[in-house]
Design a protein that fits this description.
The chain is an all-alpha fold. The chain contains one helix and no strands. The radius of gyration is 50 Å and the shape is rod-shaped.
Amino acid sequence: MLASAGDVALIVLAAFWGLLVLFICVVLINVFRMLESTKMLIDGIREETVPLLSEVKTSVTNVNRELDRMDTMLEATGKILGRVEKISKLVEDTVSSPLVKLIGFGAGLSKAAQRFRGAKGKA
C-alpha cells in the first residue's frame, strides 16, 4: 500500500498544524505564567502601598496642623514686633528731645564757663 502524493501532502499538512498548535500552546503557557507573575507583583505592591499611603496621609495632616500653628505664631510675633516698634519709637521720641535739649544746654554752659574763665583770666 503506497500512499499517494495527496496522502503524503495531507500527512505533512496535519503534522505542520500539530506543530503549530503545540507552539501556540507553549506560547500561551508562557504568557499565562508571565501574567500570573505580573498579577502577583501588582498584588504585592498594592499590599505595601496601601498602608504606606495611609501613613503619608497621617503625616501630611500632622504637617498641615503644625503649619497652621506656625502661621498663628508668626502672626502673633508680627503683632508683638509692631507693638515693640511703637513703644521704642515712643521712648525714642520721649527721651531724645529732652536729651538733645540737655546736651545743648550743657554745651552752652560749657562755652559760657569758658568765656567767663577767659574774661576773668584777662582782667
